[in-house]
């Protein structure tokens, strides 16, 4: 198994670190356009092997795609992060060009790779990568819902003062401050609806905090987050390489599911060795369906900007 992570910035390096610690591949290539950065971070990470007891060797590359040849899974994190006060959507101008050229280069050397897109605005970047590459849709997975769901579970756990490990819940829809849909109705504390433990107004606040989870961290840190994004991305990679068939909300191409077509958005999918293998069709309430349709409209408008 060979995995490449493109972009050795905060999210890319954290993703790579999680992947090698869990030994998800024999070889991990970390690639960046900045001279020496990927090589330096790879060496730094490899120096933890003797301390943490793992055997996956990270290899750095300054924009040399030859080194990525034959990758089974490629994660794209290259691109600008937002600054406080910005939306993810404002990154489209620069990041679309980066994601397009990276996708072309990756597929030249790894035509069979499964691609996990992280760069923002993620739903539109996933759509772009799929449209540009023309590879089968099941091989392109956008990472957003995994992270948003982890934030949702964390806010629920904090509110209830319980372990996040006992909370189940999903966030679907777009990966944007106003487009994500935390499914409060379906969230449970070990199978028991969370509404039994949290008052309605508190539950609404948890949902609102989840939606602006990324913006809150961006304001605190000065750039966007990386620990949870890196862990969420590695979790998806693990489900692919270990064929775990986990159900994870991911941005995938819809063809009539959830009433949408020709758009990548977050819905629960089964992730295994083929990429996303199946979409799980949730029975949404009328209000949830309306939120999904509204979210799709915003994502579609963003996609239209690709051709503007
Ligand atoms: N989908 C999600 O849930 C999340 C998405 N993000 C997004 O991930 C992206 C990366 O975020 P950070 O790692 O924090 O940014 P960063 O600035 O720390 O790292 C980005 C890296 O990409 C590299 N890069 C730029 N152009 C490149 C190219 N053509 N080829 C190879 N490498 C190139 C840069 O040199 C830099 O090292 C941003 O767009 C951010 O918004 C971040 C967190 C979560
Ligand atoms: O907030 C951002 O811009 C980065 C991101 O997508 C997240 O952390 O959810």
Automatic annotation (TrEMBL):
Task: Return any one Pfam family short name.
Answer: Ldh_1_N
**Keywords, alphabetical:** NAD, Oxidoreductase, Tricarboxylic acid cycle
Q: Which residues form the Lactate/malate dehydrogenase N-terminal domain?
A: 1-142
Q: Which GO terms label this protein's molecular function in UniProt?
A: L-lactate dehydrogenase (NAD+) activity; L-malate dehydrogenase (NAD+) activity
Q: Which residues form the active site?
A: 175 (proton acceptor)
Q: Which reaction does it catalyse?
A: (S)-malate + NAD(+) = oxaloacetate + NADH + H(+)
Report the residue ranges that make up the Lactate/malate dehydrogenase C-terminal domain in this protein: 147-300
**Annotated EC:** 1.1.1.37
Record keywords: Secreted included?
A: no
What's any GO biological process attached to this entry? tricarboxylic acid cycle
Q: Does the keyword NAD apply?
A: yes
- The record lists NAD(+) as bound by 7-12, 32, 95, 118-120
Question: Which residues are noted in the entry as substrate-binding?
Answer: 82, 88, 120, 151
PANTHER family tied to this protein: L-2-HYDROXYCARBOXYLATE DEHYDROGENASE (NAD(P)(+)), L-LACTATE DEHYDROGENASE
Similarity comment: Belongs to the LDH/MDH superfamily. MDH type 3 family.
What function is annotated for this protein? Answer: Catalyzes the reversible oxidation of malate to oxaloacetate.
- The name under which this protein is listed is Malate dehydrogenase
Species of the source:
Salmonirosea aquatica
